[in-house]
Amino acid sequence: MTEAAVAVDGVTVRYGDVLALEDVAFSVPAGRICGLLGTNGSGKSTLFRTVIGMLTPERGTVRLHGHPPARARARGVVGYVPQAEQVDWAFPVRVVDVVMMGRYGHMGPTRRPRAADRAAVADALERTGLTDLAHRQIGALSGGQRKRAFVARGIAQGARVFLLDEPFAGVDKGSEATIVEVLRGMRDDGRTLLVSTHDLASVPDFCDEAVLLQQRVVAHGRPEEVLTPQRLLAAFGVGAGTGRAV
Amino acid sequence: MEALVEWFAVPFQFDFMRRALLVSVVAGAVCAVLSCWMTLIGWSLLADAVSHAVLPGVVLSYLFGLPFAAGALVFGAGSVALIGVVRRTSRVKADAATGIVFTAMFAIGVVLISRIPSDTDLMHILFGNVLGVSDADIAQILVMAAATLLVVLFKHRDITLFAFDPTHAHAIGLNPRRLEALLLGLLSVTVVIALQAVGIIMVVAMMIIPGATAYLLTDRFERMLVISVAVSVGASVLGTYASFHLNVATGGTIVVAQALAFTLAYLFAPRQGVVWRGRARTARAGETVPAR
């Protein structure tokens, strides 16, 4: 049996008296795109923070390609693409600087880039279609290009498991298609993508599987199995016809 | 031309002026480097807090005849830790915790100052005494400045990563909390260096204005560092000389020079300056112009 890229087992997380995640268990094999669906407050962000090891669960374990989060981080396994609101877009860094930050784990203590690092950055920029924009300040990009810049950072890092937090928020349909194309290319390289999203309409198109989260795992399977009207009603309180939940 | 040469040459003949220039330039340069990260992370209030919180440390050092840096460092780092403790262990928000700790520390310092016999010393602590620095002071400042710049030289990329995206720093196996502690440590040392030049009250200007000025002038972090240092060193030199010729307080003049530099950038920076943005708005009258 092949080892899962992401294995979450019996994870329970509590903030004070509030139960954020309860006995969450699922695993995703390598080379898959897994949509993580749920409302605000369903525990998606908490799950991400647990997978990345910023939160230690009260119970349960997380394994990334068999490694506990700390070792997975040290090995550069995890790539993180933040939500747009979490980034200071006026920060004086260029696209190429941001992508180079993906290489820091491979560098010496002063993080001085070597030829191999520059090559990896150039390759990541090329694969995300950002070569011509490499010297722009990060905030001078469109919403979709910004997302791709952070994806490029993970590619340059050599990450095998990507966590993408709401990658389609604030992105127009055309850019969304470009992002999906980039994400599919990464999957075809054998990388694993965990994508949190509100955008239910896009899920069947590009996700291989989906996890519906509401503190617990409500459903996990192929998108069409997960996105049934009853389950959506349970998790989102909406009918399937509306497509996009709030 | 000759007048200009004389303007610079005459004060330079005095030993106290050469010392003052050395201290204000070194302090200006080190503060300028740190100010870039302070501006970008939004730690201005924290810089202000640390600078005020060192007062009891400085006073105690005076009373016990210790090097002023020793007491200042203990209270600077201690108050940063205390702010963290109050924030984490109560529902009080970060800005309130910061405000409480630094004003409390400052107040303790004010009370302790009553024990100092002469009012001159009080004025020096609060407003700086760059014209009267001793050899020992200069030695301390040079050692602390060299140590700070050495750490920055080796760690500036990690610190910038921490300022930009601590979550990514965590994800690739770095320790953001350790980087935060490193930057707070550098902040404490830098505040102590700047105390000598401009005094406790105005340290925060040295810790913010150069970085904020540079931020208006460039979109590249490396250039921001260079511009910030240039602005700060320029203000230190001009301020020190101007204070000599005008016979006014040196620390205050340095800060006024920095504020002038910021005002110029605020008005005339190529893209961020309000004058050019106003013109662009007029040129595109009728269209909506986004603020950024």
Automatic annotation (TrEMBL), chain A:
<dbReference type="Pfam" id="PF00005">
    <property type="entry name" value="ABC_tran"/>
</dbReference>
<dbReference type="InterPro" id="IPR027417">
    <property type="entry name" value="P-loop_NTPase"/>
</dbReference>
<dbReference type="InterPro" id="IPR017871">
    <property type="entry name" value="ABC_transporter-like_CS"/>
</dbReference>
<dbReference type="InterPro" id="IPR003593">
    <property type="entry name" value="AAA+_ATPase"/>
</dbReference>
<dbReference type="InterPro" id="IPR050153">
    <property type="entry name" value="Metal_Ion_Import_ABC"/>
</dbReference>
<dbReference type="GO" id="GO:0016887">
    <property type="term" value="F:ATP hydrolysis activity"/>
</dbReference>
<feature type="domain" description="ABC transporter">
    <location>
        <begin position="6"/>
        <end position="240"/>
    </location>
</feature>
<comment type="similarity">
    <text>Belongs to the ABC transporter superfamily.</text>
</comment>
<dbReference type="GO" id="GO:0005524">
    <property type="term" value="F:ATP binding"/>
</dbReference>
<keyword id="KW-0813">Transport</keyword>
<keyword id="KW-0067">ATP-binding</keyword>
<protein>
    <submittedName>
        <fullName>ABC transporter</fullName>
    </submittedName>
</protein>
<dbReference type="InterPro" id="IPR003439">
    <property type="entry name" value="ABC_transporter-like_ATP-bd"/>
</dbReference>
<keyword id="KW-0547">Nucleotide-binding</keyword>
UniProtKB/TrEMBL annotation, chain B:
<feature type="transmembrane region" description="Helical">
    <location>
        <begin position="97"/>
        <end position="118"/>
    </location>
</feature>
<dbReference type="GO" id="GO:0055085">
    <property type="term" value="P:transmembrane transport"/>
</dbReference>
<comment type="similarity">
    <text>Belongs to the ABC-3 integral membrane protein family.</text>
</comment>
<dbReference type="GO" id="GO:0043190">
    <property type="term" value="C:ATP-binding cassette (ABC) transporter complex"/>
</dbReference>
<dbReference type="InterPro" id="IPR037294">
    <property type="entry name" value="ABC_BtuC-like"/>
</dbReference>
<feature type="transmembrane region" description="Helical">
    <location>
        <begin position="224"/>
        <end position="242"/>
    </location>
</feature>
<dbReference type="Pfam" id="PF00950">
    <property type="entry name" value="ABC-3"/>
</dbReference>
<feature type="transmembrane region" description="Helical">
    <location>
        <begin position="21"/>
        <end position="46"/>
    </location>
</feature>
<feature type="transmembrane region" description="Helical">
    <location>
        <begin position="58"/>
        <end position="85"/>
    </location>
</feature>
<keyword id="KW-0813">Transport</keyword>
<keyword id="KW-1133">Transmembrane helix</keyword>
<dbReference type="GO" id="GO:0010043">
    <property type="term" value="P:response to zinc ion"/>
</dbReference>
<feature type="transmembrane region" description="Helical">
    <location>
        <begin position="248"/>
        <end position="269"/>
    </location>
</feature>
<keyword id="KW-0812">Transmembrane</keyword>
<dbReference type="InterPro" id="IPR001626">
    <property type="entry name" value="ABC_TroCD"/>
</dbReference>
<protein>
    <recommendedName>
        <fullName>Metal ABC transporter permease</fullName>
    </recommendedName>
</protein>
<feature type="transmembrane region" description="Helical">
    <location>
        <begin position="138"/>
        <end position="156"/>
    </location>
</feature>
<dbReference type="GO" id="GO:0071281">
    <property type="term" value="P:cellular response to iron ion"/>
</dbReference>
<keyword id="KW-0472">Membrane</keyword>
